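Translate sequence into structure tokens.
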Amino acid sequence: MKNESHMSQQEIPKKPTVRILISLILAIIAVIVWLKASNIEDTPTAADNSRALIGGAFALTDHLGQPVTDEDFKDKYMLVYFGYTYCPDVCPMDLQIMADSLRFLNPEQLEQITPVFVTVDPERDTVEIMAEYVKFFHEDLIGLTGTLEQVDVIKKAFRVYAAKADDSRDYLVDHTAYTYFMDKDGSLLQHFNHGEEPEQMSAIMASLIN
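Result follows.
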């Protein structure tokens, strides 16, 4: 009986080993959680991914008849809208909003931005028509047109949808109605929806420039 009692007393000290094991498990869990949190911070967000998908190389003709590429707009911010001159309401409204938003900027900010209107209807929007159209909105607005193939390239680069609504002579064109604010390196900084408030639009651009 003495031996059995003595053996039982020797087994009691094993309990600290369990506590050590639990501490190790908790430490491992803490490390795993920390590593996952670190990876989340380094992982691009959906917004980052969408911004990376907008923009790219293009070659078009401006409203003065001069060939231009994306390289001609580097080192300046671009405010870009896709539409067409025969558009009855949406395009004129958004181009006017674009022009009004620029007037809220101070001269130093305005100097850094190039407003651009890209046609999605190059079959009708010739250089001459674009030249007449852009002057109704802003003195700095650049109109861009080109061949169907050239316009398709920039539409794909900016993920712009555009398609004729029908085959009539006076057809309308269904199209994306976003205004894109591009960084100096040609990447997207911000997009604005149709009907954006000009003053709010201007404030966002100013904050991104500064």
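Note: The radius of gyration is 30 Å.
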